[in-house]
């Protein structure tokens, strides 16, 4: 009986495609303004993930964020939509598309790909941890983003003594598993 329970718990992590379940998913970030941490989040994002832990190199990850869904507080949200920041009228989405997935331990992976913000693409490697959660899988991870590499915070806002260049990004994705076809 114990073996069956263990196998059932492991099934979500093996050979599946996954769709994002918004409930229980989040993308958050922490930026610093004059040394003070400011929390933010994105309310709208999507992901397409296919991963077989037995063949992670064949896996694919595609992730998109609706930049207009940014939330840091009423006085800041409208400012972040402007061209100096995300420029959402011209660049409504940020995307990440994987080019390689490498196992680094039990249910842990390094996902390498291209992050594109404001039409600028940069290589990025993100550590990701997978965990079974009932019939779903929870993917968690985080990375440091250098905002100026993507021209986020231009003009007067490019001064890193006012707004730090490093932004800490974290995610928790609740994924509904579907068998690979």
From TrEMBL:
Residues 1-17 form the signal peptide. InterPro entries: Lipid/polyisoprenoid-bd_YceI, TTHA0802/YceI-like_sf. Transmembrane segments: none annotated. Keywords: Signal. Residues 17-176 form the Lipid/polyisoprenoid-binding YceI-like domain. Pfam families: YceI. The keyword rRNA-binding does not apply. PANTHER family: PROTEIN YCEI (PTHR34406). This is YceI family protein.
